[in-house]
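Thread: Newbie trying to understand structure tokens

Hi all, I'm a second-year student working on a class project, and my supervisor (Dr. K.) asked me to get a predicted structure for one chain before our next meeting. I've only ever worked with sequences, so writing a 3D structure as a token string is new to me. If someone could post the tokens and maybe explain what I'm looking at, I'd be very grateful. Here's the chain:
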Amino acid sequence: MEKLRPKAVIFDLGSTLIEYEVVSWDELNLLCASSARDWLVDEGFSVPGEAIFHARFEEAKAAYRQAASETLKEWDVPMVAAPFLREIGILDGDGLVDRFFDAYYAPVDRLLYAYPDTINTLQWIKGCGRTIGLISNTVFPERAHRRELERFGIEPYLDFALFSSSFKLRKPHPDIFLHACALAGFAPQDCVYVGDRYVEDIIGPNGVGMPAILRAKPGREYPPEVPPDIRRIETLSELSRHLDI
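---
Reply by user tm_fold:
Sure, no problem. This is what the structure looks like when written as tokens:
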């Protein structure tokens, strides 16, 4: 397969540059809900028991998840938290929702880590004079991810970053890829996208004419319709097999 010669390389974030799935998302959701509930208790609020609190918050998020899957319009945790807190008798004020989110996100922040070859890969691409961008589907506010990009030394290598929670549309919506191309200053065919999910990170960019590389996550089951001959890697350091830059 002939190597690609992109002018810009655009990455996904989770399971591509940074690992968030240290534990299952179900377990992580429980840890986050417990952390947020404990914070409310410490702040002196009366809240439902842990099991009820978690179940009701998951129920509140479910409607937003369903709508996002059908429309590709993004939601975020603070958007759910504000009405949820009112529902359990806690009125928003003095940045309460933001502080609630920080407590909710604490377990994610504690467990995540950058892959060992993330920085070396970004250094190689930037050293070759290429533009580097990021598009991330996320239900967390952009500010949380900006802190992570700075914490792991990724931010200096990025020419731009798009987060669905700010952009309000999620992959594979074509607009988020086209906007990334506009920020990069190149046509879609002059960019390449790297991500770990087939629909969002391969079909999405391909739909606007952007080549893509699947960063296959070990242990994940991919749908049977994934073509066997698509470009794929298991580690970022393997990108040199596909990029002639």
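A couple of things are worth pointing out once you decode it. Residues 25-111 form one domain. Strands lie at 8-11, 18-19, 113-114, 131-136, 160-163, 191-195, 212-215, 232-233. Feel free to ask follow-ups in this thread.
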